[in-house]
Amino acid sequence: MTRLRGTAVSALLLLLAWRLVVTEGSVHEYIGERFVSRGNAFVVHGGSEGIVAASPDKNETSYIRFDKVAFWRPKGNANFTSGSVQAVVFEVEDRETIGGSAYGGQREVCCTADLAKLGVCTQGQIIRRPSSKDPDWPRVFGVSFHKNKVVARMTETQIPITRTGMYNLYFIHCDPNLRELALAGKTVWKNPTGYLPGRMAPLMNFYRFMSLAFVILAVFWFSQYARFWKEILQLQNCISLVVILGLFEMLM
């Protein structure tokens, strides 16, 4: 019985050590997210993360990747070709480059008739002006629904990040006929050091140290538990259970 317990604990500790080395991605998943009205646009917030620019000298990569992102509309509302449903990615300092207003009026995300008359945008499209720091930003791309199609799928895209900052993603459309539109899929946000969100990356070493300390204490506890198993009290069994649950929590 003691040997069986020791084997189980050893396997758990090995799994924990593997988990400390291999970090899952910072993934934003979308499961039936609904677009909501914001001014004259319809919006889903896709995520916000701090991302550090990759260093070419160190063979690092930073990016935002779109995986299997798709949009659904009701079958009864599929008898027309729609306007574009677009993904808008921008760094927080470039937030003023999205949207605009005519004659100093209310700021809108979608181009209005007045703005179209001024020649600054195309009516029904998202208003985008190039960033002063990089004319390729903000990134705007999308997909349209074809007639009688209920699903529109985005091309899988990976956007390299070359400037450190806080990045935001919004899915936006300007077509009021696209009622009850839903979003599904995921985006992966990667920093040079891995897939942890940028705001948590500096804590990685701290969590590693604390996890290592917990593992060392767990090894000591279970070695003594196995050594004196005939004298174990019920309270110590409960403590061992708490330690095991703590290890499982670290693995989640």
From TrEMBL:
**GOST seven transmembrane domain: which residues?**
202-251
Tell me how this protein sits in the membrane: Multi-pass membrane protein
Places the protein is found? Membrane
Highest taxon above the source species? Eukaryota
Q: What GO cellular component term, any one, is given?
A: Golgi apparatus
Q: Sorted alphabetically, which Pfam families does this protein's record hold?
A: GOST_TM (PF06814)
Q: What keyword terms does UniProt attach to this protein?
A: Membrane, Signal, Transmembrane, Transmembrane helix
| Signal peptide, first to last residue | 1-25
What the entry lists under InterPro entries is as follows: GOST_TM (IPR053937), GPR107/GPR108-like (IPR009637)
Transmembrane segments annotated in the record for this chain: 206-223, 235-251
PANTHER family (alphabetical): LUNG SEVEN TRANSMEMBRANE RECEPTOR (PTHR21229), LUNG SEVEN TRANSMEMBRANE RECEPTOR FAMILY PROTEIN (PTHR21229:SF15)
Entry protein name:
GOST seven transmembrane domain-containing protein
Q: What is the organism of origin for this protein? A: Punica granatum
